[in-house]
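Continuing from the previous page of notes. For each protein in this section, the sequence appears first, followed by its structure tokens. Read the first protein now.
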Amino acid sequence: MSENQGSQGLPRDAASWATKVDRLTVEGGRSGGINVAGRRLTGPVQGFGKMWRKTYWFETGPQLSPETAIATWKKNFGEFWPKASRFKGPLTGLGPGDVALLDVRVGGGVRLSTGVFVLYADERSFTLMTPQGHMFAGWITFSAEARGAATRVQAQALIRANDPLYELAMGLGGHRKEDQFWIHTMTSLASCLGVAPVAVHRRTICVDRRRQWGNAGQVWQNSVIRTMLHSAATAIPRARQPRPGPR
């Protein structure tokens, strides 16, 4: 038996992986899943734009264990985001196979309602994967590890813009906003962990400069457009309701 296998012949981390899903479901009747339920997952191969690897990290002393950092991050994930963005995940934290809903301000008063799928989660890392219509096709891994006398806490994304409109938006300031989002998040996490102030470092590498024009039709699933259409459709009936007359 391989040292990486358990007693049942399965990889030792098998329980940390989500089971394969064909389409996402939103459990418990949670609202806000208009661009999540029924959607397929998309990795970097399925995206449209250039492929990027973005890494954000900070380091602190050995008083912070990797397990404590990740446990805190999973349990309070959305609390570290900027106030204009909302994250609706399971109350007990993020586990393999969970689906969480997102509502993010993308600029100019425009909002993106979408979600993420927890592909992997263990004591030292967890990985989120995006559905169709999300701004990005890909995954982002959150991890912590001991490096000599320091503990490194990191977020690393491997992503492509999902369609031509998202790709255009990234070139018009989206990359800068993405950096600001994760630097704010990691600064907030460090403060919660009691290790602030810290310097949040970042590294961005273009892994593939090609655009995959065969995937340009994914604009049909664009969650920003569908969020706007949904908001307009729900506002019209409210506007038509008669107003109460004077008493």
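Done with the first. The second protein uses the same format. Note its length before scrolling.
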Amino acid sequence: MNSVTELKSAGAESPNPAQTPDRPAALILDDSVVDRRKLKSVCDKADLALDFHEVDSITQMREALNERQYDIIFIDYRLTDGDGLKALEIISTHPSNRLAATIMIAGVAQASIAVSALKAGCSDYILKDALDPNWLRRAVINALEKSRLRQEFDSSEETRVALLSAMKGFSKDCVEEMKPLLSRMMRQVRRIRGRAMTHPGGIPEIEELESSCRRLWQFLEEIETYSDRYR
């Protein structure tokens, strides 16, 4: 995803944003051609260089999501085949677009819908009846930043899961390999202890060796328990 800095510089430096290949990809979901044009016009006034793609229904949105990955998605609440909350739910579970920045577009009378959208994971919202360049610019930059942080967290979580899986694999292999060896060692120690008992004073080192074997066995059992717990 393009950073906020890249977004600003793209808008400031490109004389013809339509020819800029690395602009953030934006999807507009709105069943009104007039409203889609208005949103794009306000984005231009806000100096937001976005690569727009437009759809007028949730059905078309599904197809668009499968065709490419978007950086930001504008969602109108009132749609012909559902509503913005349904669209948001679809986006949030999409394999390649679930981390896209999302902005709900609602009317002033639908302010409660905006709150519901935020609770459902929407990055931000804008009021259609009070749309202005400054407000839109803040909303877009805020949404992209939230999306970036979510992607960083998601990447960190994937790394954590991979490390955990590797640790579980190592634990399992370690226990399976070490326990038979340690078991044989402990039997040998017990045989040596039996022979030592026939000598006056025995062999003092045997007790220390046997104690070390018991501690090692306990350690292997703890590793095995850890591996089973996170299986």
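What the second structure shows: The CA atoms of residues 21 and 170 lie 45 Å apart. The chain has seven helices and seven strands. We return to this in next week's lecture.
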